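pls ignore typos typing on phone
KG4 + seq
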Amino acid sequence: TKEIRILGIESSCDETAAAVVVNGRDVRSNIISSQIDIHTLYGGVVPEIASRKHIERVSQVVEKALEDAQMTLDDIDAVGVTYGPGLIGPLLVGVSAAKAIAWAKDLPLVGVHHIEGHISANYIENKELEPPFGCLIVSGGHTHLVLVKDYGEYEILGKTCDDAAGEAFDKVARAIGLGYPGGPKIDKVSREGDADAIVFPQGKVRGSEYDFSFSGLKSAVLNYLNECHMKREEICVPDVAASFQKAVVDVLVSHAMRAVEEFHFRKFAIAGGVASNSALRHAMEQACQERGVAFYRPSPILCTDNAAMIGAAAYYDYRKGIRSDWSLNAIPNLRL
Ligand code: KG4
Ligand code: ZN
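k done
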C-alpha cells in the first residue's frame, strides 16, 4: 500500500510548528519554533505578538520540516492544520499557510481540532494503540476527560468549569514568584517540597462526577499566601508548590480512575502540556497499574504543542475521506 505523507501545521498559541508524518504514526520531522522567550517578558502569551511571530516564522518552519524529512512538497499527499480552538490571530496564520500550500500544490486540506491532535500524539510512540480508550487532556487551555470511541469519534465525559489545569499551574507559579511558564517550574521546585505540608481543597463540582474546577484551588493558594504575609510568616515555596501540585494531580487521577471503573477502560492515555508533569505521570501510571489498565503518555516533546500530533490526527481524517475546502476558517472556540 502507498505511504500517505502528511504535512502538519500548528500555530494555535505560541509555538509555530510543522512536521511530516507518514501513515499517521511515523514522524519524519517535527519542527517547533517556540516564542516562550518573548512572552516571558510579559508574564504570558500576548496574542498580537504571537500572530506576528507566526507570520515571520511559518514559512521557514515548514521548509525545515520538509528538509529534515528529506522531502519536497511534491512528496506530500495532504496538508493538515489546526483550525481551533486557540487564539484567533495565531490560528489564522497556520490556516492561511496551509491553504496557500494546498492550493499551490493542488493537495487535499484537512482541518484538525487541536485537542484531537493532543490525543493523537499517543499514536506516534505506541504503534499498537487503537481506540477505544480513555484520555485525559490537560493543557494551558483545556482540561478534558474523553472517551475515544474510534478515530475521530469522541465523547466528552468531563471538562473544567473554570480554569484549565495548566492555567492553574501558571497562575499559582506567578503568585509564588516562579514566573512563566509556571507548569515546568512548579514541577521542578516541588521535588524539594513536602506535598503534605499544606492541605489545599480539591475542586469539586456540584452534580458532576467528571467535571473539574481549579479556580477555588487557585484562590485557596492565594489566600494562604496572604495569610502568611499578614502573619509575617515565611513562605516555603517548594512546600506550597508541592501541595498545590498534589491537589491538582489527586483530582485528575481520581476522576480518571472513576471513569476507568465506570466505562471499563483497558487502556488509558494522557495528553497536553500538563501531561509532562512528573507527579501526574507517576500517579497515573501507578493508578493504572493497580487496575491492570495499560497506561500511555507521550514523550514531553509530543505533550507540548507540536505539529506531529496534527499530522497524526489528520491522517485518520484523511483516511475517512474528510476534506476541508477553501472556506476553512480559524475557529477560536471550536468544540470537540
Ligand atoms: O499543550 P500546551 O503546550 O499548550 C496548550 O495547548 O495550552 O500546554 C501548555 C501548558 C502550560 O500551562 C504549562 O504551564 C503546562 O502546560 N505545563 C506543565 C508542565 N509542562 C508544561 N504543567 C505542569 N507540569 C509540567 N511539567
Ligand atoms: Zn495544546
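Residues 152 and 317 are 7 Å apart (CA to CA). The mean pLDDT is 96. more later
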